[in-house]
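Protocol step 4 of 6: structure prediction from sequence.
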Amino acid sequence: MAPQLDFDDLDALSQGDVEFFARGRAPKTEEEAHAPAIARGAKCDKCPLYGCRRGPVMGEVKENAPAIFIGEAPGRAEVEQARPFVGPSGEILNEAIATGTQEQLYRTDCTITNVLLCTPPDDFTDYLRKLKREGKNSPVKCCKPRLLRDMAESASPTVVPVGKHALKVVCDIYEIPMGKGAKSLPGAPRSATIKVQHGAPILVPEKELDDGAVRPGVTIVPSLHPAFALRGDKAWLVPIRNALEKAARIATRGGKINWVEPEFLLNPSLEQAIGIIDRFRAAPGRKTIDLETDGVETWKIHVRCVGICADIDGREVVAVIPLRRMDGGNWWSSSGMERVSKALCRLMDNSPIGGQFLQFDTETSLNQKPWPLMTNRTKMWFDNAIAHHDSRDSEFPHSLGFQASQFTEAPYWKGDVDAKSIEGVSDEVLHRYCCKDVLGEHRIGKILKDRVITHGCADAFNVDSRLAPHARNMGSLGLLVNDEVRMGMYKELAVGRADKILKVRAALGKPNFNPGSPKQVAKWLYEDLGLTPVYDTKGEEWDEDDEDAAPSANEDSLLALLDRGGLSKETEAGIDAILEFRGIDKLIGTYIGMREVPAGEVAKAQAAGKKVTLRNGLWMVEQGSVSDVIEYEDWSRLGWGIRPILHPTWLVHVQVSGRWSCNPNLMAVPERAAVVCPLCLGKKILAGGLGCVRCKATGKIVINARAMVEAPPGHVMVGADMEQIELRLYTLDSGDALLWDAFKKGKDPHAWNFASMVGGRDMDAVVKLYDEMMTLGKDHQKVKHSRRIAKEFVYALTYGGDETTIFTNMFSQREADGSRSFPGLEPSMTTEWYDNWHRTHPETARWQNRRVGGWRRDGFIASLLLGRKRFFRGGEDRNAMCNFPIQCVPADTRVLTTRGYEPIGGLPERRLTGLGVWTGEKFAPFRMIRRPMAERIEVELNNGVRFACDDAHQVLVPGEKRYEWRKLVELKPGTEIAINRPQSMEFGHGFEGWESAYWLGYFIGNGYFGKRQVDFTIGDRPHLGLTKEDTQKSLVRVLPRCQMHPPKPQWRDNHVVQSIGGKHALASWAAAGAKRGSTAHTKRVPQTIWSASLERRKAFVLGYLHADGYCLRRDVVSGGESGAIYVNTPNRELLQDVLLLCSTIGMDGRIHGPYNADREGHIAYRLHLYRGLAHQALGLLDAARIKGGPVVPNFEAREAFAGLDRTKLPAGTSRGSVRTLMHRVSKGGSVSAHLLSSLGVPPQYMVMGIKSVTRTGKREPMFTLSVDDPSHRYCAESVVSKNCTAADILNTATLEIVEQIPHRGWSEFSGPCLQIHDYFGVYVPTHMGERAARIIKEAMTTEIKGMPFPATPKISTTWAKQ
């Protein structure tokens, strides 16, 4: 019988307890419940959790288990089932054990237990703190004897602590120092914090205990607790599973890790060091490099040693070249340092290198004076951090320690030279640490290279790798700071800061109040006013029961108080005043980077290591992230004196989106901060009643902090911002009709958006409001504010925000001076705007759903330009899934350019003057873009043309009224797609001699190389206008210096063969494109012919047909040939070459086959060329009416006939036949494309049915084109294909710019200097400004599928005017 409940204690029970009792499953008595734990040594009666009814949950102990998994405490599911690890975390653990060992090991083979057997009532850490504060026993200590018994009985060589507290207890048991402040001897086991140590084994050797017993050695493999990811960022489930799987694998090996270090080459003599470096340089393959330095400021630190690792003769070789001792002295003599420097330069400049974050290492190597370690500033490298960023792991830390914990079983070594964690650091310890670093980087580099390729991220990695040296060079060049402007800004902001303090004191009624003191602000809010805090100082939500928590008064807390509402107007005014003060204070401290110091505190500041200077009678201390990277450099050699140069660090591997990051964050340097006027102090007048000359009688001035960055003397800054790029990309991808219309008509998009937000479905109201705004002008204050509202609202909405989220974000937004960005904003406003937007822009929701659906289907979302992928390992993130689809073709697919058909993989990656791609209407400039690997899809059309693409390739399909883009793999056989129309195209490239082209064609048809001569098979082709005698005479004319051997044709293998000998003959044919050793199965149309002029291409085709062509049907009346022209050959690729070449001279046909050409089963294909077109182009056969061939869609035929002048029909065309055709079209019928062309109304395209689409299963690199034309089309193997778009437009443009404006290439202080968001800027000499502007405009301006992406360069002397 269940015991009766004491309802007086019901409030003390958890909800789980209440439900437990309600089901009639009353727990045992306290003594009965804890008896098993007490029997195993637990001191339950002394534990504060005794009788909590949330346990104990006994561990599942298996003697001599291969592994013991130790969690922190049971959860609710564990308590209910009375088993450890049975909830969601347990499912992850069970799966990891089985998966990691390929089902060699299961949960039941292991010991599973917890640090605590009962569930704490609160967060584990907070609960322990509370108990300590109250002086109560620790449950961990009470349960420890039981845990020791579990571990002893398990006797496991592999110990797996799961969670922070589990690791802490295990480290305590094995006497392992833990954390940053832990001290240990070099090589002794030590543990970092769980976030760092996670997944990295700790090797604990056996130890003799005080009682003489020997404690066996164990391998500890820590892991974060799965609950850490389940309750927060689910992406972390990936590394947690990896760590648990790794632990299980190690357990199957009896605790042995798969990590063996080779012997390190340490402490070499000078000659040995030179020899080692030269040996590395001579070895093939990549050399991994790692530096150890005495600081982090690359422009002034020293390198202590260089670690090198490479595979030489099938084994890993690891060496350290010492350069500087820990005491600061050089390792070698001056001559020795010079020799080592030159040897390292030869290695670093000329060998392929790799490593971890080599932007730092290479910049430091370049800056070593007087003995640099590297001199080549354009050299690329393989960077593990970039590779990790450009793979499925992009959302995780890119540090070497994290990579090692995920991809290797290496013990964590990164704390070995941390001055806080090790005693007695020596040169030897440093060198061994460097060896471990470079060995880890070398092994991980191989893994990451494979992952980048496997994950389809090679193109993004290649582009980022090309950008990395330029990002490094930008930081090296730096930005020139005008100290006088900077000091002037400080003085004006200091007046504004003082004004804000007075306003705060007036609003609060406290004359001595300090708004910069968090304690005073917290006291006013929570004690004087009695407000309930929103957050505590740890950033967590306020919990009144947490006696250890302190209320926060930071900016987020103040904004949250305003958001929560219910405040008096006086309180709101006080909080607003404090926020405004903090805005100015942050602007001064962080971005201006200096603050005045009283004279009495100068010595104290200097003693603290701060930079203090006397400026205009004021002692100023440098502070903040901007001043940290300012270096005062001597430019006297150019007559500039000492100038402060700001050296930011630009990184390409931080932002998941592919944007660059910058430290300090220059993007946050404000352009607009309104403060009180320092002259009139807001009174707007001066003595005498005159208006203030500083603020123009407004009482306020606006400070642009970017004005302190300027161009050097004799130089200008040239840069451009890609205008509204994100809004244009959204419009492009979503098909938003209203915004498409706005961009198409040149409307201001932000003003148009504001009008549609306010006007809703009433388009008359929308147009009227927009016109009113344009009448006022963009510079009108009201219009400026409205445009900014629209910008913030639309960006937040299109990236997935709802009306509540948008209101919260906009309401909380503050200017640099602390004032509200959108004063007067109400929730009803954003709700109305939100509803109106979705009424007028229904495409937005569909677009968002499509992006999320794409991730669910593919597991990633990829940008279109580089195929940069985001995998969202933590699950669906609607707000961040903003990228684009992809489409492309393999390298061997040919596209039609001004040089004829060329393989896309061989096209240039940047625009070239005069080189264009055919869009179906004209030749347009383009850029070739390399894409990730994808499956090769092979397609054959009904005319026999074959081509290949990826599974996202899009083609034009005729609809009812227009062509539409469709994915090719979604189309069924028989579906018609648009192909290029044959027409005579003049490329304007020469080819020596009509007859040379003719005989090259003849050679491709019936010629081959002998040992010393070129042989031609000669036959009569009277129906094609050729006899054997004509052939011989023509050969003599085309090669007069060649000898006929023999002078007359000879019978050979039932053929008449004419031989031409001599070195000149062989050289001439080879130069023209005829390949020695080519056979009937391997011949192709030479590239020299593809790019030849129209007449030369016609000559080539004529020669080929005279050699290998024939005609079948004979007209019985006239006796002449009336059929089409045919060519038979086993070489299908050659026939497609000829067919494509014919399409550029106005001929067309189709390929048939394969056929069994003879009794032996040899395969042959047949090219069928239409007779009428052949007569028009080459004069072959008799004139014939053009008929048959591909058709055009009905809508295009209607457009063609609408432009037909029936009074000017070609000769031989009757009006009656035209009327018949027009009648057919009016009834929905189709017409031959060639017939329309013959009538003088050629269609844009013609259509051809799909015969087959085949998935090959083969993956290969893909390519696409970015075409600068509104149609954004190109012709691939005659098929009209879709061009790519550009989520990475700026990165691609950056590569174009830096090629033409290189680092220090135009002067000593020229080159790229800024890349912020969608802006790119350079320093150039003043007289080169216009040229730089043209280069930037050409690189950054583009148009994608009809959407213009403009960029207007500016030339100025300061950043503020950019």
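Step 5 (inspection) to follow. The mean pLDDT is 83.
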